[in-house]
Design goal:
The structure is a homodimer. By secondary structure, chain A is an alpha/beta fold. The first copy, chain A, has a single domain, classed as TIM Barrel. Chain A contains 16 helices and nine strands. In chain A, a hairpin with a 3-residue loop joins strand 2 and strand 3. Chain A is globular. At the A-B interface, helix 9, helix 11 and helix 14 of A face helix 9, helix 11 and helix 14 of B.
């Protein structure tokens, strides 16, 4: 059986057999590519790149010209949504994202603007439309957003954090008003992801980068439950209902049974989790995406290949595996090893397909 | 049944019933205490504090004067061992620990000095002796060291890191020579912890801060296996054999079944793990320590108490629980909430003891 390249990723999202394991890489359009750095140099700031649909389209397509990847992912940033809600995002060199107006009080929550995705975030929708046009059906386009809890972390801290002192002080002091912030984000994210679907995104991914900093009950309440509401909202919309939904909840190995209840079709796995054990805990209906340590791409090609094949072997004959990293690719990654990764994954003969043939 | 306060912690380490759950806090001697900051201000650098036995003793005892804690832990730093091996440690304001001579080649490994704990690390042993004398048997003293993998991470990176690019590049490029570095550390740590035992430490703890950044097979090979050898070396020594050994492997919730094979008597749990599930996976022979989110100490007293009681309830009637945080206490923690923590834990009537009484 041969699968059309344009279909591999979406079939795997739905747990259907494919000829080759599809592969894409989180942050595949990024600083490890010289052509990305050249495009990035054309604008003063990182946010300018996100807000320019032509340039966002260009960098989205760059990795697809180099590597035989099975999906494109919209080039953007999860913090465009809080920016559109009024927090004034900027990127400070050497420090990362900073909000001029962090959310620290219930008054701050009430002041939040509920964005219209085709107004304040129109640049994202224009990028989606342009990328879909340029891709011309060769591979599907993934749209994405941050999870409510992850966005709340950044919005409360005002920047990145090691221990999320402000966000957790709120959580352990006044959980009811924190819930109001999450409610606002749920509504904003449903609108944002529906609009991406309407603009042409063919799969939707939620990045729950900071769910893993919570205790189990706090994860269920403040990270998982709002994501369930986002996903239910998407399922209830005409535009987004047909799209596969991917949930990447970093550090969620302890809670896979809970993540299985998220409503997502695909669960992204970080590299702490063994794919075979994860699949047993998630159940047969859920596909998985992952889960190579991004740092394995700094290794010797022989050991890199062995690590990739270890993951493919652990998945075994189960359909519904999309190969990816366990987190984003990092800036000094050697391009030659990315080539090896894609080749190694595609050279792997899927035994579920072999069984299907004979 | 009433347990002597001096015995609570050691009995719980051994899984024996106690009248009240013993409690101590990782980094209990630290910046959240004004008296610590005053003592710290007497010396130019953090390392000077570690290297002065009188001051190290003073800060070790400070939290015991304020709170009804059931154990003292030596005030020191896990990086004193690499410092004694020749890496020249310093603490840079706002950046944390930095080694002047990081380990990047096999030649660097061969140049490492194998320290004599009563020579290069005599200041630690003198601190242990002095603290034991000053404690006068009121509560036991815990000695500690970093795990081989955790120390190797710092030694290779030369400083803290988010993704451990240098350490993992080595791991995925030349694992055999990385093993040589771990071998050196295993030998140094056995000697260091034996010497702490000989100097009077009454329990020994391994901090595996960075085991959780590895994949499952890499954790078993590069983090767990060297710790097993350290623990076996301690069990084989006259000084350390009778002491309970505590292993804190942060982010190891995915691998508790493996951690159960470490040889440690007590496993420290971070706050991602539910204590009841962890105990089932670890088995009845292993005690646990943990596992409150340190950030819960920033919350409202009512919610803090509820969170503490949730953990005590989850442990239920099982003996062998030492209450602690899931990671170190942080600098802005309100002291009043630490008081509430200790009182709440000690007010809890242990049902295993109740059953023992009737």
């Amino acid at each position: 059986m041969s699968t059309a390249k344009s279909e591999r990723f979406l079939r795997a999202c739905r747990g259907q057999p494919v000829d080759r394991t599809p592969v894409w890489l989180m942050r595949q359009a990024g600083r490890y590519l010289p052509e990305y750095r050249a495009t990035r140099a054309q604008v003063p700031g990182f946010l300018d790149l996100c807000q320019n649909p032509e340039l966002a389209c260009e960098v989205t397509l760059q990795p697809l010209r180099r590597f035989d990847l099975d999906a494109a992912i919209l080039f953007s940033d999860i913090l465009t949504v809080p920016h559109a809600m009024g927090l004034e995002l900027s990127f400070v060199d050497g420090e990362g994202p900073v909000f001029a107006n962090p959310v620290r009080t219930t008054q701050d929550i009430q002041r939040l603007h509920q964005p219209d995705p085709e107004q304040e975030l129109r640049y994202v929708m224009d990028a989606v439309r342009l990328i879909r046009h340029e891709l011309a059906g060769r591979v599907p386009l993934i749209g994405f957003a941050g999870s409510p809890w992850t966005l709340a972390c950044y919005m409360i801290e005002g920047r990145g954090s090691r221990d999320f002192q402000h966000a957790k002080t709120w959580l352990y002091s006044d959980p009811e008003s924190l819930q109001q912030l999450l409610d606002r984000l749920v509504a904003a994210l449903i609108g944002y992801l529906r609009a991406q679907a309407a603009a042409g995104a063919q799969a939707l991914m939620l990045f729950d980068t900071w769910g893993g900093v919570l205790s189990t009950p706090a994860y269920r309440h403040f990270s998982l439950a709002p994501m369930q509401r986002v996903i239910a909202g998407l399922r209830a919309s005409a535009e987004a209902a047909p799209l596969p939904i991917i949930l990447f909840s970093k550090g969620s190995g302890n809670w896979l049974e809970a993540v299985a209840q998220s409503g997502a079709d695909v669960v992204g796995l970080d590299w702490n989790t063994e794919i075979d054990q994860a699949r047993e805990r998630l159940g047969a209906k859920i596909s998985v995406q992952g889960n190579l340590d991004p740092m394995a791409l700094y290794g010797h090609p022989t050991l890199l290949r062995a690590e990739i094949e270890r993951i493919l072997t652990a998945n075994g004959s189960r359909p519904g595996h999309i190969f990816n990293l366990g987190h984003g690719i990092t800036p000094q990654t050697p391009i030659s090893n990315v080539e090896i990764l894609v080749e190694t994954v595609h050279a792997w003969k899927n035994s579920h397909n072999e069984y299907g043939e004979y």
